[in-house]
Fold these 2 entries.
Entry 1:
Amino acid sequence: MKIAVAGTGYVGLVTGVCMADRGHFVTCVDINEQKVATMNAGKSPIFEPGIEELMVRNMDRLHFTTEYNTAYKDAEVIFIGVGTPEKKDGSANLSYVYEVAVQIAQSIERSCVVVVKSTVPIGTNDKIEQLIRSNLKNDVTVHVVSNPEFLAQGSAVKDTLHASRIVIGVEDSYAAEVLREVYKSYECPLVITNRKSAEMIKYASNDFLALKISFINEIANLCEVIGANIEDVAIGMGYDSRIGNKFLNAGIGYGGSCFPKDTKALHWLASFHDYELKTVKAAIDVNENQKLKLIKKSRKYFDSLKGLDIAVLGLTFKPGTDDLREAPTLVNIPFMLEEGANVKAWDPVGVDNFKKLYPVGVNYCDSIFETLRDTDICFIFTEWDDVKKLNLTYYSDLMRTPIVLDGRNCYELQKARETRIIYDSIGREVIYNM
Ligand code: UDX
């Protein structure tokens, strides 16, 4: 089928590339000319495993352009995959989505199906449909479909090609048939429902996962107080298939482009309708506190961070991505600097993005060893493999005082017991072995 995709961020690019891989003819639209040139050369503007291989392999069916008019005018299906960033009040900023809707209306010369992949508040698909219909230049019919994505950064290609489910929100059977055709080569359950339910499935899924993380983080905090071990607790809980064993890793809170934004947006939407979504509010509050958990732990060892040499391992919100959105480091590192600490930081892919935000003040290192050398305390914010595989003796050998605060539970406690370090992680016994 002839497909156009609006936006080449995580959602748009991965959608376009995967659609081309499934045999469709795809044109992706972005406003940034340089980015378009890069993508036409087979290079991905985002760090995402597997994406470039697919781009190169499908180049004959995949094009990138800044000219939305050419891309949309005769497309059978147009995906909208532009961003819906958070506004100051927590609601979603829909201006990019609406802008694309108007551009589509003014460009299309044939009837088509517009598929909204961007995460949008419940009811937005109806508004998009009205907006397109009221701005149409030609006498054509447009069907709007809600088709939320469930991809996670770092596994976006796999999550898209081997989706757990495809959710299709439609108001008419014709649109459902077109979407069945688009996804005919996918072997996963299709959930066909109305548009509002599809929009809600996306928010409810993300908010439930965020809630699960905040719940396990609170249990971890309590484990520390009463002397239980969160990992054993999570294993014991996870065998119950009603609970499941995924997303029970305690840590310093969730970050990224979805959970923080989508929890706040749903809470805002509920309040707008005079309903208080108490569980989601709790997930948000717990997460805000959890992000500063390691700073609170550091108070056990030092009254203040002033004058300390600090090693930071990991800057991104999770491994496998260079994305810093809502990463715990964005609140922790400014706090450290404000208190007068000297911060050395390492990350395998996130340094360039972090440097754009903090060009001065942080000493960026190329290796973990250089980062640890002669420091008073180490903060682990991201569970990169290089960190997890590190022999713990490097902490005792390189640091001035080997105090390791681990926000991602990277090491087995037994390993820490065998090393001369203080190892303080989340929801587990503190190992004092100095
Ligand atoms: C998430 C959803 O997984 C995806 O389905 C949705 O479409 C977009 O949002 P993403 O933000 O890329 O994807 O990452 P994810 O792997 O879900 O992790 C989000 C955050 O939760 C990370 O900061 C991660 O460290 C944290 N997390 C995850 C935990 O703290 N504990 C866990 O058990 C799992």
Entry 2:
Amino acid sequence: MAEQSKLSLGGKDYDYPIIKGSVGPDVIDIRKLYGQTGAFTFDPGFTSTAACESALTYIDGDEGVLLHRGYPIGQLAEQSSFMEVSYLLLNGELPSGRELEEFSRTISRHTMLHEQLMSFYSGFRRDAHPMAIMCGVVGALSAFYHDSTDIADPKHRKISSHRLIAKMPTIAAAAYKYSVGQPFMYPDNRLSYTGNFLRMTFGVPAEDYEVIPEIERAMDRIFILHADHEQNASTSTVRLAGSSGANPFACIAAGIACLWGPAHGGANEAALNMLREIGTPDRIPHYIERAKDKNDPFRLMGFGHRVYKNYDPRATVMQKTVREVFDAMKVSDPVFETALRLEEIALHDPYFVEKKLFPNVDFYSGIILSAIGFPTTMFTVLFALARTVGWVAQWNEMISDPNQKIGRPRQLYTGPTERDYVPIGKR
Ligand code: SDX
């Protein structure tokens, strides 16, 4: 018999089973609570709620641990590749050499977009935010792939998963090209997944484009760091959309829309804009005070996390990658010194120490992406590109879960109780 948790409500006692995972917090199975007690739990923001069972990613926020299928993010970032991590997330095990080669080749076969999809871009203003374009174009994929939207068919789920992972770099690069008025670049499948993306983004038809290995490696590592992250807001959005049976392209478009928010994936753009606004280290104390002021909506972007109450392990790798990219590009950026100084001051300030606010994945990523040549408006697009494999893996896991049902939370109603309509002449 599973260990039980006891709840007393309305003078009656109820037992609810405790379920243990392979690691991490136990869960109290309250699926029968409403039926037995007539009461709901109340947990806005889901701070204490496990919405699903998953075997993909484990985070220990107190210890700053992030595992993908059991492998620590630091080891994957240093030793693996984004294609290999994608295979791992989708299939549960690291691939053999042959499996990785076959997977990479399969993905490369889906990098091109339907030619008619390219006409969607011209409908946008040139100054449209690229995330607006991503929401529109990825959602429009549903209109092109009727042969892979039967989510009950594992073959359909597999090909639509591969299409989404493969096409995101092409769609993202085209969004950048459209914003700068340059011609779209077609994929060149002789290149790696990440090299192909860099060439589609920064290459032009007029010249050969040479992928710089150090930049390709740094970009690939950034994709690894953003691949998946348990049940974050955008992943939960994808799961909720998928729970209704919506097609995978529509679900990923919903995830992109959610990721855009500055409290989530939009923080990398907001963090670099903040660091540029701060400018020099002498202005840091003023911004630290603003971040602590309850009456000021300003927050230190790139700091804090719902789960990490320790240093985000991804931020550690990001900080190291800044130096590698600066060396490879033979550039420097005073903003990096400001970021290092800001981190040092914040981590010794009682407010940030008490609230356990540490740099997160978004604090340093913008500095690297800016050094590589991306405008800030592309930062969240890159986050969405990389997170697509996580969203797709979580979506597949949800569809295959025998316990999955349509997600339909309830509420604490505090509006007016029933009252009769008053004709306008009597108001
Ligand atoms: C991502 O969930 C994921 O896994 C997300 C992500 C992923 O990979 O998918 O990791 C990616 O979204 C990273 C987070 C990027 N966002 C930012 O950097 C934006 C700045 N950070 C905050 O907005 C905030 O920290 C959140 C949104 C990230 C977390 O918010 P929570 O968990 O709801 O925590 P909270 O807002 O309740 O903050 C707790 C306290 C509050 O003070 P009190 O009300 O208790 O007095 O800390 C304060 C907050 O005011 N606080 C900050 C702060 N973040 C929290 N104060 C100043 N600056 C900050 N950055």
